[in-house]
Write a structure and sequence with these properties.
The chain is mostly beta strands and 204 residues long. The chain has no helices and 14 strands. Strands 7-12-10-9 form a four-stranded mixed beta sheet, with no helix packed on it. A three-stranded mixed beta sheet has the order 1-5-3, with no helix packed on it. Strands 8-6-11 form a three-stranded mixed beta sheet, with no helix packed on it. A hairpin with an 8-residue loop joins strand 9 and strand 10.
Length: 204
Amino acid sequence: SANAKSRHYGDPNPPLDATVTGAVPGGDPVNYTLSTPAVPLSAVAGSPYAILVTIGSNPNYSVKVPPTSGALTVTRRPVTVTADDKSKFYGDDLPTLTATETGKPAGGDAINYTLGTTALKLSGIGPYPITVTPGNNPNYDVTAVAGALTIDPQMVWVSANAKSRHYGDPNPPLDATVTGAVPGGDPVNYTLSTPAVPLSAVAG
């Protein structure tokens, strides 16, 4: 009678063995072989897989295999999907979200999951979660680990525009050129001032 076995999807089959009942102590060994159609990437859905007992030459025994002989059970493989941390500057497009898969067997089924974040192009600075949502994975038991998307301040330059006036005139309106501001984003807040007054000397 083949002994029942189990393993995770993607693992090699465990050593197969059997329980022999009725053999004569000190007598001839009972000749048999064990096999199973299961291979490492056999699906959980097909489980359990039969463990076949093939009887060899046994001239001194009448060997029978009971109908309750054991089977090989394939269980869902534990895997982990960890969202990779990302960063961007305020106003930049969201980066492509990626994840690191741990535990997937070589050549095994793809791990189904989606990645998402609450951050938008114009979301303010700070960390935002990157979530992993597992999909249908009949051969895997998926553990999801969230990552973070960090939004950093966008670099902008405010350059005061040059002005001129005659001695005694009031100062002209002051203005500046802003470079790097995000289209549709927050306005760049700044003020302009000068120590010059109408009677400031030309020599200054």
